[in-house]
Amino acid sequence: MPDDLAKAAHDLFLRRLAVENRITSAHLLGSYRSLTGSLRSSFDALTALSEKRNLTVSELARSKQLERLLAKTEKELDNFSEIIAKQSEIVQDKAIEEGADFASTELKLVGVRFNHPDIRAIQISVDYTDTSAFKGIIENFGGYHVQSAKDIIATAMTEGINPVQTARRIVAYYDKMPMYDAVRLTRTLQLWSARKSTHETYRQNAEYLDGWIWVASIPGACMSCVSQHGTNHPLDEELNDHHNGRCTPIPNTGRQKVQSGEDWFNSLSDTEQSAMMGAGKFEAWQEGKFNFSDLSKTYTNPLFGDMRRESTLAELVN
Ligand SMILES: [Zn+2]
Is the pTM of this model over 0.90? Predict the structure, then answer.
C-alpha cells in the first residue's frame, strides 16, 4: 500500500464521493417513486388484462392497453431523464471539485510545492454532460427502456411464458430497472469526472511529476483492480477501471514505492486468494496458466471509452 496518509486521503476522497452519491441516489429514488406511483393504475390495468381467461401473450402484445401503457411510460421516463440530466450536472461540478482537492492533498503528501488547480479550466475540459454521447443517453432514456419491455414480451413469446408471468416481468422491470440505470449513470459520471479532474490537476503540475501510480481499494477490489494496483503510468494516460470502480491515481514523484497488487495478493493465505479469484481461476493460477497482469482486460464502453474488467476463466486459460 502507499503510506498511511496517502491511503487515508484515498479513503476519505472515496467516502466523500460515496456520501454525495447517496444524496443523489435518494433524490433520484424519490423522483422515480412518484413517477411509478403515477403509472400504478396502468400497471394494475395490465395485470388485470393478463389475468383474462384464454388470453395469449401475442394478444397481450397487440393489446391497446399495453400500447397505451408503453406510450405513457416512455413519456414519464423522458420526464425522469430531465431530472437525471439536472442531477448529473450537479454531480459533475461537485466531483470536479472533489477530484482536484484529492489531487492537491496527494501532491502535498509527496512534498510537491504544487500549482493550485485551475478549476475553471478543468470544468471546461471535463464537461461530460455536454457531450453528444451523454446527451444521447438522456434523450433516448424513455425509448431505451420501452424497448426493453418489448424485448421481455418477445422473449416470453419464444419461451412460451404465460401472459400473467409476462405482465409481472414488465411491471417488475419498471419497478426498478430505469432507476438503477439512472443511479449507475450518475455514480459512474461522478467517479469519472472526479478522476478526470485529478488527472488534469496532475497534468497542471507535470513539471514536478514522473507520472501517477494506480491505487486500488484493497482489500475489497476485484482481481482486475488488484492486478493494476501499484503500476506506474505516464501523465497522459488515465485510470480506466469499471463502472462503480473505486481506484484512484496518486502522483508519482519517482521517490515513493507502492507494493504491487501481485505482491500484496501473494501475501494472502490460499483460502483468501481462492475466495478472491474464485476456485476455477485460483486453480489455473496455481498451475501457472496465466500471468497476474492477464487478470485485467480492457473493453470499450460507448459512453466512457476504455474501461477495464476482470478476465473470465475462459479468457485466461484459452
Ligand atoms: Zn475492480
Answer: no
